[in-house]
């Protein structure tokens, strides 16, 4: 007697066998401790709601990355942006720092992170004297909560308010005018701040001589961006 006839005579049908067979891809809900275990996945792919603990190397993760995840160095953790639509600053004082209106805070997510500062500052030059320079320097102030201090200046001589020409022009007429946008970028690195520290960055300007300048949203908006970067 054949094997098929033995199964049939015992009452075991193909339907019964199919019901008893293991699932090819069983569903599982719960937690499995895989500490010290190496897992090989088809197509080098991880999918699901989350992966907790360990390192994800090459491949694709389609779940949600938690806030406690450790990102590689150079990874951008957050970005804050400020578009200045309110500044209306004017001055004719030389060799004195003034706020441009660009200021923004950022609260760090990790310890000792770097902060990348970028800005585009609009400025309007006027009231020249004949045959003379009208020029400016910029600096970045940083406040960690105990008072602001200078972390960058466009001119190289740190003992003098003014000795550079980051923005400027030579004019031979007191009727000359100029409007321009000054791009500024600086990487604030080597910090020893804790996660949760609120940092305030402010851009300041100083001019060479007692002429006149304006920073006004009526002419063009200035803006700045702060990016926290994994150290």
Describe the 3D structure.
The protein is mainly beta and 231 residues long. The chain has a domain at 76-229: Jelly Rolls. Helices cover 6% and strands 42% of the residues. It has helices at residues 3-9, 14-20, and strands at 45-46, 60-61, 76-84, 88-91, 98-107, 114-126, 132-143, 148-153, 167-171, 178-188, 198-207, 212-216, 222-229. The strands form three sheets. Strands 3, 4, 6, 10, 12 and 13 form a six-stranded antiparallel β-sheet that branches. Strands 5, 7, 8, 9 and 11 form a five-stranded antiparallel β-sheet that branches. Strand 7 (132-143) and strand 8 form a beta hairpin. The relative contact order is 0.26.
How would you summarize what this structure contains?
By secondary structure, the protein is mainly beta. Helices cover 6% and strands 42% of the residues.
Short key terms for the protein model shown above:
single chain; 231 residues; mainly beta; Jelly Rolls; six-stranded antiparallel β-sheet; five-stranded antiparallel β-sheet; 13 strands; elongated
């Amino acid at each position: 007697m054949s094997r098929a006839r033995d199964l049939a005579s015992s009452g075991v049908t193909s339907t019964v066998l199919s019901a008893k067979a293991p699932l090819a891809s069983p569903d599982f809900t719960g937690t499995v401790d895989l500490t010290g275990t190496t897992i090989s996945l088809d197509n080098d792919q991880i999918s699901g709601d989350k992966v907790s603990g360990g390192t994800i190397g090459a491949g694709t993760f389609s779940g949600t990355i938690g806030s406690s995840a450790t990102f590689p160095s150079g990874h951008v953790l957050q970005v804050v942006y400020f578009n200045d639509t309110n500044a209306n600053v004017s001055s004719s004082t030389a060799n004195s720092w003034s706020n441009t209106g660009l200021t923004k805070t950022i609260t760090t997510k990790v310890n000792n992170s770097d902060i990348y500062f970028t800005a585009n500052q609009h400025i309007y030059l006027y009231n020249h004297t004949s045959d003379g320079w009208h020029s400016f320097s910029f600096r970045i102030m940083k406040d960690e909560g105990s008072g602001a201090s200078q972390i960058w200046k466009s001119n190289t001589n740190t003992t003098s308010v003014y000795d550079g020409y980051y923005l400027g022009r030579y004019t031979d007429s007191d009727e000359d005018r100029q409007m321009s946008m000054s791009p500024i970028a600086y990487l604030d690195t080597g910090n020893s701040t804790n996660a949760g520290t609120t940092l305030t960055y402010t851009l300041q300007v100083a001019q060479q001589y007692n002429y006149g300048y304006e920073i006004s949203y009526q002419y063009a908006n200035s803006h700045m961006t702060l990016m926290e970067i994994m150290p």
